Amino acid sequence: MAASLRSYEPRDADAVVELSRAALSRPELHVGNPLWTVREQLETEIADWEPPATETLCVAEIDGQVLGFGGVEHPRGFTHAELFGPLVAVDARGQRLGTQLLERSLEIARGLGAESVIASVGKQNSRGRMIVEAAGFHPRGRPQATFRLSPGEHRPLGEPPDGTEVRLATREDLPAALELYRECFPEGRFPEAVWRENLEVGTVYTAVHDGDLVAVLNIDPTDRWIYHVGVTASERNRGVGSFLLSRSLEDYWQRHPGETLGLDVDRDNVPAIKLYRRQGFAPWLVLQSFELAL
After folding, report:
1. At what angle do helices 174-184 and 192-201 cross, to 10 degrees?
2. ∠ CA 84-229-50 to the nearest 5 degrees?
3. 243: helix, strand or coil
4. Would you kindly state where each structural domain of the chain is located, as residue ranges?
């Protein structure tokens, strides 16, 4: 029987999580989104999407069974959309479901007014790479290594570098935080409005040395991800980034007990990888980003 595509509905959650969990278990199926292993992760991440996930995600059904998943997220303030999937059950392959889900996802992104779509595909996922490249996507940047860490595996640091303290950023820190972000991530895409919103909700941590903001990172509780661990050039190799990460994790877990967190880093960034491994982060995925201009 031919597959039918329709919008995602809350009743699809368990089937979608199972597709995500299956993809995460096999390197040849890895994608960057979704990274859900339990229903609660899915529901937390999509809870505040605007437009809602029921308008931006889709499923493929055969005989009433959900066997494929795709769609996009278009975060507020961003010009690009993030591709989810396409994921297809192994026993449903060979029916072009992945291509159909991708085509529908691109239609959704265009309808949302996105200027481009960014996809992430596992380095060993040759089928996924062929699907996105056939649609016109091109590699963007270098491969990224994804790490994750649970509270029980964290190895916190002791004393801070001389004259350095870690605290939550305030709205008065916005100009310095933006300057540091642009210094450390010149190709970064987080708009100023998003930084301002993150400061307001208390997800941005800073390291301050002798009164000056010298390092910054952001932990997003909706997708349990650590973003933008950046240290100004003059303060590198002093342990500032390591201490900021360690103290930020401790504070975050006091507010969000038990949550496993993830982060991405350039696969060739050996100093950063050593920093993360020393604190207990374990390697998980290796992904290549692709982008399609709409």
Report:
1. 120
2. 35
3. helix
4. 4-144, 151-259
Omega before 186 cis (within 30°)? no
Asked whether this chain's domains 4-144 and 151-259 adopt the same fold, the reply is: yes
Please name the amino acid found at residue 166: V
CA dihedral (289, 137, 54, 2) positive or negative: negative
CATH architecture of 4-144: 3-Layer(aba) Sandwich (3.40)
Q: What is the pLDDT of residues 76-103, one digit of tens each?
A: 889 999 999 999 999 888 889 999 999 9
Edge-first strand order for the sheet with 225-231 is 4-7, 57-62, 65-73, 80-88, 116-122, 282-293, 138-149, 261-266, 225-231, 212-220, 204-209, 164-168
Q: Would you state the structure tokens that stand for residue 18, as one six-digit string?
A: 């199972």
The DSSP string of 7-59 is: E--GGGHHHHHHHHHHHHT-GGG-BSS---SSHHHHHHHHTT-SS-HHHHEEE
What does CATH list as the number for 151-259? 3.40.630.30
Contact by Cβ (8 Å): 122, 30: yes
Predicted TM-score (pTM) of the model is 0.90
User: Tokens 């642009």 appear where?
Assistant: 182
